[in-house]
């Protein structure tokens, strides 16, 4: 009993040493401790059968992937042992093996391994590992798509020269059928299947099955059983745009994307479409969309975003209609936007890096904070000093509409 306790303690200490070495990327040291760890397990439990722990598979794989003297041959040998000794983890190990081969550019070998795993059967374990089997089939389908894409490119490249090779075309259609079956099956399962969906839609579009492609993307984006996924709405929007769908459909797709990720790069497109709308509610939403995007640090120096905001705000000021829209957006931001966007430090930095950005921001700052705003004063002064016409025009515009700031600020 005491020996077992001592062994348990030494095993835990050894694992902590391995972990420490791996975190410090000391792969040789980690390998030495790992060897000792495995040998001690064999020695201590020589009279008992113990299946290899998942930790041996995970740690061993990681060390072999990064060790300076590691090779694909050694990794393959190790993984094959893990496959034969760990039935419950067989398919997971096969999948990781395929990933490792792909990372090393061994695509044919990866495909062969996935095909062998797909034919694996082991009593009740086959049913228990149904999810893993679906993943095996899905990744094999992904490689079928890759092969289809290669054959397609060969045909397209030589099409104008009268390329006529039935074997290439036959291989291409064969890959299409196999890929389509596997990819269609995996995307029925609720989950995040971005790459698989994109590949399947590409196959369908190439063969002109646009209705099926639309149905797949709608299901992926709107089925409540699937987790909320911004990319699903991006793919749907891009598909609708490619096929010249109505502005209403495009706006509907981007509205949901805005609700999930207000900082997404497509918010520029969304704002542009909304600004062009004849409906007042949509134009107001456009202002809300671009304000929300600029709440995020990643957008602070986005010239297009500031141009969108400046243009819409200028239209509102000139028409003197809907100033309440600006006021509504500004009320929740006036306590933090001045320091976040309109400090003198930012004015100086923006001017040095991008004069166009400075101009757009100065226009927005002048409307929101008045012509005495630090940002506006610095940028307009520098622009006029450099004798740039648009900055003189900007100054005149702010002088003419100086009372707008008071109405917005309340």
UniProtKB/TrEMBL annotation:
Pfam families: TAF1_subA. GO terms for biological process: transcription by RNA polymerase I. The gene is Taf1a. PANTHER family: TATA BOX-BINDING PROTEIN ASSOCIATED FACTOR RNA POLYMERASE I SUBUNIT A, TATA BOX-BINDING PROTEIN-ASSOCIATED FACTOR RNA POLYMERASE I SUBUNIT A. It comes from Chloroceryle aenea (American pygmy kingfisher). GO terms for cellular component: RNA polymerase I transcription regulator complex. This is TAF1A polymerase.
């Amino acid at each position: 009993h005491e020996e077992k306790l001592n062994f348990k303690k030494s095993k835990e200490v050894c694992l902590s040493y391995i972990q420490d070495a791996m975190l410090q990327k000391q792969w040789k040291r980690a390998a030495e401790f790992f060897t000792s760890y495995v040998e001690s397990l064999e020695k201590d439990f020589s009279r008992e059968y113990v299946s290899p722990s998942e930790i041996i598979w995970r740690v061993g794989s990681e060390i072999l992937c990064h060790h300076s003297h590691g090779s694909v041959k050694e990794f393959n040998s190790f993984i094959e042992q893990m496959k034969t000794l760990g039935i419950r983890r067989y398919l997971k190990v096969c999948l990781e093996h395929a990933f490792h081969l792909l990372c090393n550019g061994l695509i044919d070998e990866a495909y062969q391994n996935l095909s062998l795993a797909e034919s694996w059967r082991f009593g009740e374990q086959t049913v228990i590992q149904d999810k893993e089997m679906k993943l095996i089939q899905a990744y094999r389908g992904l490689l079928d798509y890759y092969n289809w894409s290669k054959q397609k490119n060969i045909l397209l490249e030589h099409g104008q020269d009268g390329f006529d090779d039935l074997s290439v075309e036959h291989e291409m259609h064969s890959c299409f059928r196999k890929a389509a079956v596997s990819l269609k099956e995996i995307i029925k399962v609720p989950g995040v299947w971005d790459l698989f969906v994109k590949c399947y839609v590409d196959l369908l579009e190439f063969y002109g099955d646009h209705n099926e492609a639309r149905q797949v993307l709608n299901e992926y984006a709107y089925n409540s059983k699937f987790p909320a996924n911004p990319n699903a709405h991006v793919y749907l929007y891009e598909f609708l745009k490619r096929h010249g769908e109505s502005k209403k459909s495009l706006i509907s797709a981007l509205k949901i994307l805005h609700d999930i990720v207000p900082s997404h790069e497509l918010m520029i497109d969304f704002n542009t479409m909304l600004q062009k709308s004849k409906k007042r509610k949509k134009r107001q939403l456009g202002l809300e969309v671009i304000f929300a995007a600029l709440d995020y640090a990643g957008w602070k120096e986005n010239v297009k975003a500031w141009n969108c905001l400046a243009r819409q705000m200028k239209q509102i000021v000139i028409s003197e209609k809907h100033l309440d829209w600006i006021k509504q957006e500004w009320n929740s931001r006036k306590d933090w936007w001045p320091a976040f966007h309109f400090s003198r430090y930012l004015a100086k930095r923006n001017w040095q890096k991008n004069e166009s950005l400075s101009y757009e921001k100065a226009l927005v700052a002048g409307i929101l904070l008045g012509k005495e705003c630090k940002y506006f004063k610095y940028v307009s002064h520098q622009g006029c000093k450099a004798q740039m016409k648009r900055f003189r025009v900007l100054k005149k515009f702010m002088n003419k509409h100086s009372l707008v700031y008071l109405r917005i600020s309340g």
